[in-house]
Write a structure and sequence with these properties.
Elements (H helix, E strand, L loop, with lengths): L21 H7 L11 E2 L5 E3 L1 H12 L1 H8 L1 H4 L29 H26 L2 H16 L24 H19 L2 H17 L16 H5 L4 H11 L2 H16 L8 H5 L9 H18 L2 H17 L24 E2 H18 L2 H15 L10 E2 L1 E2 L24 E2 L9 H5 L2 H7 L2 E4 L2 E4 L5 E7 L2 E8 L7 E18 L7 E3 L4 E3 L2 E18 L3 E5 L5 E5 L2 E7 L1 E8 L6 E7 L22 E7 L4 E9 L5 E3 L9
Parallel strand pairs: 8-11
Antiparallel strand pairs: 1-7, 2-9, 3-5, 4-6, 7-8, 9-10, 10-11, 11-14, 12-14, 13-14, 15-16, 16-17, 17-21, 17-22, 18-19, 20-21
Helix pairs in contact: 2-5, 5-6, 5-7, 5-18, 7-8, 7-10, 10-11, 11-13, 13-14, 13-15, 15-16
Amino acid sequence: MRNGFACLLIFFLALMSPVVSPAQQNKAFRKSAGVPETFQPLPFSEVSPLGWIREQIVENLEGFTGHLDSLVPALIIYDDIYGKDRLSRHVKSKDVGAITENGELQAQFLWWNSETQGNWWDGFIRSASLAGNKQELARIAQYVRRIVVSQDEDGYLGIYDRELRYNFDDENGELWSKTTLLRGLLAWYELTKNFKLLNVIESAVVNVLNNYPAGSSHPFHSIHPDAGGLTHGLVFTDILEQLWRITGKQEYRDYCIFLYKDFSEQVLNEDAQYGKLADTSLRLKGHGVHTYEHLRSVAAAYYASGNPALKQALRNFLLKINLTTTASGGPAGDEWIAGRKADATNTGYEYCSIHELMNSYTDLLAKTGEADFGEFAEKLFFNAAQGSRNPFESSIAYLKTDNSYSMCGGLNGDTTAKKQTRYKYSPVHQDAAVCCVPNAGRIAPYYVQNMWMKDEQGLVAALLGPCELETAFKGKRVDVEEQTGYPYDNIIEFTIKTFDTEFDMKIRRPSWAKKITVSENYRDEKGYIVIHKRWQGEQKLTIQFYPEIMTRTDVNGEFYFTYGALVLARPIQGIGTQTKTWPLKGFRDMQYRPGKMSVLEFADEKVKQPKEDQLEFSTSLYNPFTRKTEAVVLVPLARTILRQLTFKAKSQD
């Protein structure tokens, strides 16, 4: 998530100037009428995981998410960056443990710990709550009290002393540090309904609005076009939108327009600026995680303004992102997109980008109601995200490729970038940046929160999987238990408990599910199974999807295989080597090199599932070295470390 290769990739960041005139740009940000969101996102406290998702959250809590502060205490415990260790003009450097050139990115290092801490606490708060860990919840309550006490009388919550705050013309973490902090505090508010905490959060946001007044300040001004913390700060729109939903105060939503306008008017190397999105010929080039998280900010500005020019910019943005997503859904960016299309072998994706793009898709699902965004989010979570976890121990890959032939530091065995360490498994990744591991602790809780939404007609099962819902519709309590192993099996049993309430149950229908059975009368409606009835007492609803093994092609025309929501891969034997141990027993860094390996090609042979109750598939692929087809096994991506996922067309003999 941090700009680790700036010097090497400056060429790719020389983005073209906006193609729109100043008059066109001003017109694009005129507000007409805000666009209502189709679905209502639910508070964090209303949806809880069951089954394998809960098991994974508990596993994370017992692993890297629950112990990251002990693994790198200097970054999380000893640096009280939001309190007594706030940054001042006297702080010129900070050692965060990353391997880099002397002096490189020093201005960024100053704010890095705020991101590490904020994102870690956000994931930790959500994980402890979803796991029901009372000991950790008591610890979190103590942390929240400490943060509340750190707030200044004028409402300021942040990482800078009075001399520095809101007084920048270059790289800084002012808005970004607030975003990462406040996301966790908002989760705690939604869990506890502590209105004093909500007042603290609102005071901190009003402090921003007062110090960066809309229309007469420039929070994104920088004398240099590469300013990672500064531009991360655009997603302060996350906080503004959530507060708008909670309080109904329009000024929070309107401020999203101002932030995106100022961001677009500055000279910055960022893909999401309006002028660049208006030009459909420009490919995405920037730091991947910025690009994919900024998708939410563009959407926030459009929905706040209702301006058709921003609507078109959002559409253009999505088309550009489509070119950068791999077969697993992983978005190119290792760490830069650099104008490239996704490539299963040659473009890696960062775990931070997986989380942020999934989060952007769920946001767009709520805003638009379009079922495709739910499918995009599922694809990322079930495939790219699960396929970047070590299936045997608590660690993740900072960078990963769909075709992963080696995980020894460089891209698929490349050793030319001597300081590249990101292609490996670690519970920390301190030699690169402690950003992806905190986000690996956030992604499952964020998926869970967005599994259910509401609209005017009733409840929406927006993302599928094992969970339970406790909510109210039109003042009456409704509880829903969703029992399933999805996506590893495709039968979902809903148990609905309520007292004489009439409403719609909408269940998103995956596009791959050509055949389904439903235990109630239903209608198909824009990608949703809709059941309207009066629900009373305890009733059950069963839906079965019938997946087929499908052969698909990626953006480069390479072939790959899917089964329902799962992307399949051919596992490659990996030989693991421990490269580092951490202070706690059982935590280590691992590299994997391949044993005997050949890159196989598509032979247009049928894929079979020998046993219906096992997710193991067989087919034949062509070996261009032996010039023979070979029998191979395919498994879900989550079960692999080294693997081949895509297959080029068979070579001509």
